[in-house]
Structure to design on (1305 residues):
């Protein structure tokens, strides 16, 4: 963009050749007709046709020229006109940069971040992907990797981020801030770690993020680059500003150099004079408009006079700004009244002039002199070793002395610095030698020299002949010294002139003149005498016009004449050479501020000979630059009168091109100009009178065009410009009422309509215009701006309801836009017209539901703060968004087969999200979701109830009553997590396993201990799983949730009751089939039934308990049933044990005294014992019973899981046994027990007592009255038997004996 040509020299030659053909036309737009008659414009006779005439000879005649060639010719002409227009505009911009007096580069603007482009975004993606693939050296934990993975998937891969990059609104800071916000919630949710704060974790994660984002780049290089760019973003030098606007306007380097030199931009005096001429021209134009009544079209006729006042007040403000520019240090504070400033007019009367007349004391000059003494030559009269030195002084000031030197080598190089207020000071330098005489009081003066330097005097060292005494031998004594007299800032020129005037300098005489600038608008020609600080006479140049003139007859002295003319006064000046005259005229031309530019007579003759245009001349070097500029056709741009241009149009072009340049630079500017650009545009507007409303209307138009084409524009910037225009158009400006043109009002209304449309569109697409809430605060500013745009005027606030209606409409559209794009992203629409299974549709819908939830969560996270004032509208937006999803969800659910439950995860997903959102809980969609799934839940519970009832019925019919452990004990290598959960058996419909069931407790019971039967365990697991599933649904409606809970509790109570009753029946049936002898052992099935009761009691507490009183009754009823059933089965089992004991006692009854069998048996035993060892009768019976008791006790203790039931059983068993024995003995109260009966009973009673005591039966139960009765009877019988039998008991006794225990064991 800097230089589109391949060679600068080649382009320069082309321009030179074109300029030789014909001078360029006047550039600019909407040129005033008075442009051609402007005498100072230089080129008033030049017309655009002169350029076209130079082109026509090289082109064919119109009859031959084809349409294509015509179009090409027209295009070239348009390009040439555009080039010239930009060159003219660049001249104005250069002057603004060279000498700004209204604006400064702002230092308080927010620094813009570096912009991310598409290649950089791809590079960042690759770096994060490399990190996730483990290809970097960055060490990170799993939590950070998961955070980066989520950030990569959600943010970096998002198409919304790609759009933001394309719009130029994405910066590296945006990426960093989004990640920071993304991880804050994650870090806060991490568990606390001692010695490691959450802030430390955040800092560590951000440092790792920066390392990933930066990649392999050297951070030091990046920091240096960022520092340089940040500096250029803040303050730019003049050279940098020139270069920037060369790029903006397409100006070549050599063109800039030509214009720079010819415009003398490095000369502040020339630039200040140019400004003064421009301001005078604007005042004259205001007067012309007032006289000719050529006004713009205003909304009110009264504004025409106000417009003139505006023009004049704006010029006066510029004059005040210019006047405030420093002229010199320590200068006078004399200033003129701005409202009375004019040239070549009779606005100021003589009285006012007298009030503003300068006095001699107002003119203060301060000079700095440097006197350097180098050496003395021709000193021969002194001995070589004599000491010499010099003194120097400026008359009226202090005296300085050099170092001492020997007469053989009198060199010093000493500098003395002086200040003086005399334009013609006297500098005295004396040479001394030290006196050798004893009585000498002063050193001897060898010579002196007196100089009268001026600022124009040569600065180099020269030899000066010294004045010596007549009797001195060194008559040719010379001193080499240099005197440099600096020119103060407020002295514009000085030198000797011949002059004569009417009121001052009334005699033709040569005087020393100084042109002094007292202030920006006050100059004076002052004549000085030697050694005087105040001018002898002075002429204030206000209102004078300087020009070259011919030699005046009768005036002797001076060769080159010029004069200063004012109404009623003429002052004639003459210099000794032509060059000096040119310098004087040029300096006075700048001072007077006149519109007419003097042209040296020699140049006029030269131009008349050549027929060329008038160049600007200043000095020989200026003449060189002017000739060079003329050669390249630049003189017309330089000499053009700025007042004759339509600066509104020119500024519009400048601002548009500047904005284009800004949006294409490396910063994410969002439409904000850089400080340097703001400075130049501000200066241009102030200097050339561009209306503020026009400026901002053009700016708004440009910004809207970019925003409508997808660029990211800061709404705050739009707000500033819109507020300014609105206050202007509605007459409520802070600085008072201003004029408003019809064009401004119409254009404002047009832009207002466009702006409203843009804002509504951005709010509708808020997820895509402001992705992830970036740029920060932009959405909130957009809503604020919309409220401002909706205002009818600048004062009356818009009703909130009206704003609400507009935002509601936008958010309704936004819901449709967001859902449509989301559906496309989820690829739901692409299967339309194809055969898709219901399962696939449901899977896609669940995926879509996840995306819907993600969108709503992102809206809450990133956009809710912006909509804080309209939170209810965001809730409506969410409901509308969900209602669109509901349509697709309902259609998919309708395609599902009846009595299928795969859609429950969809409900759980949506319900878990909705119930966590206070605004959406039990909202419209939430209630719709409940209405859709409530029948499914009811149907599901109905089928599960039927299924469980069938499983109880059929399971108990086929129940083997083997414990669950025995069923699974043959699977030692089963992997627990992969154990298949029990299915619902024997269902009449195809009911899949219930989702979300937790079988951990059931799995644990399988492998931990003996439990109930398979049917009971299956029942309890199903009831628990069903209740867990319904509980995990978290049904939001409290009434229906309680209904479901109550129904499931009642179902569980009924099912457990059925289980208990069936177990009771099975228990009794099983017990009846068992043996009644001592061979009986408690079977496993009996223990399993006991455990079913135990499990039923435990499960009923969990499955049947309710919180309120009425439901507690069901729980107590099932508990009572279980308790009663347990009592019954214990009673049945004890009765079984008693039956076995009764069988033993019935066998002992055969030995009753007095029976035939007893006598026969006793005789036979006695007879047989004489020949063989006969076993003790009845001991086998006792051993068998004892073994039965012990093994039954061990089986029950080992297999039944409830200790309390075992203790109750053993207590009842022991008590019943003792009662049976006691009853049997009571029936034989009158009979003596047979010896064998006595032995067996003693054995049985003692073993029973000891065994039940070991099983934990309490002593109170063991030592009951019944036991005491039995024990006493057996003790008596034992005593009787020991007397009658004579030791026939063979050691068996009721007495406790450890030896007996050992023998028996």
């Amino acid at each position: 963009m800097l230089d589109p040509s391949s060679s600068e020299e080649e382009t320069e030659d082309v321009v030179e050749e074109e300029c030789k053909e014909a001078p360029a036309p006047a550039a600019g737009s909407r040129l005033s007709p008075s442009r051609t008659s402007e005498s100072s414009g230089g080129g008033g006779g030049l017309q655009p046709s002169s350029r076209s005439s130079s082109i026509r000879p090289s082109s064919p005649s119109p009859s031959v020229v084809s349409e294509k060639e015509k179009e090409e010719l027209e295009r070239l002409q348009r390009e040439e006109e555009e080039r010239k227009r930009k060159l003219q505009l660049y001249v104005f911009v250069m002057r603004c940069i060279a000498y700004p007096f209204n604006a400064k580069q702002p230092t308080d603007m927010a620094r813009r971040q570096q912009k991310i482009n598409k290649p950089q975004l791809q590079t960042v993606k690759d770096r994060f992907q490399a990190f996730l693939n483990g290809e970097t050296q960055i060490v990170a934990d799993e939590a950070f990797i998961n955070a980066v993975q989520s950030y990569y998937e959600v943010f970096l891969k998002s198409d919304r981020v790609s759009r933001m990059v394309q719009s130029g609104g994405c910066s590296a800071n945006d990426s960093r801030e989004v990640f920071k916000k993304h991880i804050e919630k994650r870090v806060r949710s991490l568990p606390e770690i001692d010695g490691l704060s959450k802030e430390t974790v955040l800092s560590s994660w951000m440092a790792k993020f920066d390392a990933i984002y930066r990649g392999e780049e050297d951070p030091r290089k990046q920091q240096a680059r960022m520092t340089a760019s940040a500096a250029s973003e803040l303050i730019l030098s003049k050279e940098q500003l020139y270069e920037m606007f060369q790029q903006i306007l397409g100006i070549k380097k050599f063109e800039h150099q030509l214009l720079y030199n010819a415009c003398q931009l490095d000369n502040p005096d020339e630039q200040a004079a140019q400004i003064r001429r421009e301001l005078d021209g604007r005042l004259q134009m205001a007067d012309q408009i007032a006289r000719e009544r050529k006004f713009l079209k205003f909304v009110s006729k009264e504004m025409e006079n106000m417009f003139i006042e505006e023009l004049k007040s704006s010029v006066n403000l510029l004059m005040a700004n210019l006047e405030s520019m420093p002229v010199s240090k320590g200068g006078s504070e004399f200033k003129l009244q701005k409202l009375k400033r004019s040239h070549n007019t009779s606005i100021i009367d003589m009285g006012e002039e007298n009030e503003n007349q300068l006095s001699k004391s107002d003119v203060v000059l301060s000079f700095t002199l440097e006197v350097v003494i180098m050496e003395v030559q021709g000193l021969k009269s002194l001995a070589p070793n004599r000491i010499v030195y010099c003194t120097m002084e400026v008359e009226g000031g202090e005296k300085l002395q050099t170092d001492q030197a020997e007469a053989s080598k009198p060199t010093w190089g000493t500098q003395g610095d002086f200040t003086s207020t005399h334009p013609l000071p006297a500098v005295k330098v004396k040479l001394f030698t030290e006196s050798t005489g004893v009585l000498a009081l002063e050193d001897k003066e060898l010579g002196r020299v007196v100089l009268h330097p001026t600022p124009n005097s040569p600065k180099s060292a020269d030899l000066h002949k010294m004045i010596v005494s007549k009797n001195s031998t060194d008559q040719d004594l010379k001193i080499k010294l240099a005197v440099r007299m600096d020119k103060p800032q407020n002295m514009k020129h000085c030198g000797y002139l011949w002059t004569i005037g009417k009121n001052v300098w009334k005699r033709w005489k040569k005087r020393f003149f100084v042109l002094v600038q007292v202030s920006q608008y006050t100059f004076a020609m002052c004549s000085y005498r030697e050694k005087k600080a105040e001018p002898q006479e002075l002429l204030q140049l206000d209102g004078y016009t300087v020009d070259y003139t011919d030699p005046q007859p009768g005036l002797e002295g001076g060769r080159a004449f010029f004069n200063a003319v004012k109404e009623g006064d003429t002052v004639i000046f003459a210099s000794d050479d032509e060059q000096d005259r040119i310098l004087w005229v040029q300096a006075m031309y700048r001072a007077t501020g006149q519109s007419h530019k003097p042209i040296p007579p020699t140049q006029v003759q030269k131009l008349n000979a050549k027929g060329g245009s008038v160049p600007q001349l200043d000095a020989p070097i200026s003449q060189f630059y002017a000739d060079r500029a003329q050669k390249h056709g630049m003189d017309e741009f330089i000499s053009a009168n700025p007042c004759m241009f339509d600066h509104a149009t020119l500024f519009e072009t400048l601002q548009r091109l500047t904005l284009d340049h800004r949006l294409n630079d490396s910063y994410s500017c969002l439409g904000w100009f850089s400080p340097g650009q703001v400075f130049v545009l501000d200066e241009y507007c102030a200097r050339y009178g561009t209306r503020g409303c026009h400026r901002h209307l053009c700016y708004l138009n440009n910004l809207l065009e970019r925003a409508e084409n997808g660029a990211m524009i800061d709404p705050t910037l739009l707000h500033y410009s819109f507020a300014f225009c609105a206050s202007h158009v509605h007459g409520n400006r802070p600085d008072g009422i201003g004029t408003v043109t019809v064009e401004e009002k119409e254009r404002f209304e047009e832009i207002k309509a466009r702006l409203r449309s843009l804002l509504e569109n951005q709010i509708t697409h808020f997820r895509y215009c402001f992705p992830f809430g970036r740029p920060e605060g932009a959405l909130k500013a957009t809503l604020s701006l919309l409220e401002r745009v909706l205002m009818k005027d600048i004062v009356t606030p818009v009703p909130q309801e009206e704003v609400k209606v507009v935002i509601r409409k936008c958010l309704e559209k936004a819901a449709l836009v967001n859902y449509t794009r989301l559906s496309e992203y989820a690829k739901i629409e692409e299967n339309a017209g194809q055969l898709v299974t219901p399962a696939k549709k449901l899977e896609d819908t669940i995926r879509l539901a996840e995306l819907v939830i993600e969108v709503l969560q992102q809206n809450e996270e990133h956009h809710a703060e912006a909509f804080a004032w309209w939170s209810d509208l965001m809730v409506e937006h969410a409901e509308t968004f969900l209602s669109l999803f509901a349509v697709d969800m309902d259609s998919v659910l309708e395609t599902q087969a009846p009595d299928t439950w795969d859609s429950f995860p969809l409900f759980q997903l949506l319900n878990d999200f909705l119930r966590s959102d206070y605004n959406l809980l039990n909202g419209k969609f939430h209630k719709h979701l409940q209405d859709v799934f409530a029948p499914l839940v009811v149907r599901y519970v109905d089928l599960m109830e039927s299924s469980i009832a069938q499983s109880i019925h059929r399971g108990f019919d086929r129940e083997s009553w083997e414990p669950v452990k025995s069923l699974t004990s043959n699977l030692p290598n089963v992997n627990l997590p992969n154990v298949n959960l029990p299915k619902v058996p024997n269902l009449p419909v195809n009911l899949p396993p219930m989702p979300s069931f937790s079988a951990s407790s059931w799995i644990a019971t399988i492998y931990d201990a003996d439990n109930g039967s398979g049917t009971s365990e299956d029942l309890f697991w199903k009831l628990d799983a069903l209740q867990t599933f319904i509980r995990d649904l978290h049904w939001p409606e409290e009434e229906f949730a309680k209904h479901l809970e109550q129904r499931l509790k009642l179902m569980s109570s009924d099912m457990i009751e059925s289980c208990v009753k069936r177990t009771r029946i099975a228990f009794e049936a099983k017990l009846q089939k068992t043996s009644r002898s001592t061979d009986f052992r408690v079977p496993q099935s009996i223990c399993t039934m006991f455990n079913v009761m135990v499990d039923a009691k435990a499960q009923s507490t969990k499955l049947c308990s309710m919180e309120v009183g009425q439901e507690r009754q069901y729980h107590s009823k099932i508990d009572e049933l279980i308790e009663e059933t347990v009592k019954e089965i214990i009673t049945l089992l004890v009765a079984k044990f008693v039956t076995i004991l009764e069988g033993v006692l019935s066998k002992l009854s055969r030995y009753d005294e007095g029976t035939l069998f007893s006598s026969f048996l006793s005789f036979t035993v006695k007879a047989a014992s004489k020949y063989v060892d006969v076993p003790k009768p009845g001991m086998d019976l006792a051993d068998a019973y004892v073994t039965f008791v012990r093994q039954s006790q061990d089986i029950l203790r080992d297999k039944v899981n409830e200790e309390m039931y075992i203790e109750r059983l053993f207590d009842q068993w022991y008590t019943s046994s003792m009662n049976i024995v006691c009853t049997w003995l009571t029936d034989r109260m009158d009979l003596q027990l047979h010896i064998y009966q006595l032995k067996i009973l003693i054995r049985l009673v003692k073993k029973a007592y000891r065994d039940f005591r070991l099983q934990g039966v309490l002593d109170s139960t063991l030592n009951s009255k019944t036991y005491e009765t039995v024990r006493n009877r057996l003790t008596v019988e034992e005593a009787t038997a020991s007397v009658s039998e004579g030791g026939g008991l063979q050691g068996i006794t009721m007495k406790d004996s450890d030896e007996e225990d050992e023998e028996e064991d």
Q: What stands out?
A: The longest helix spans residues 1109-1148.
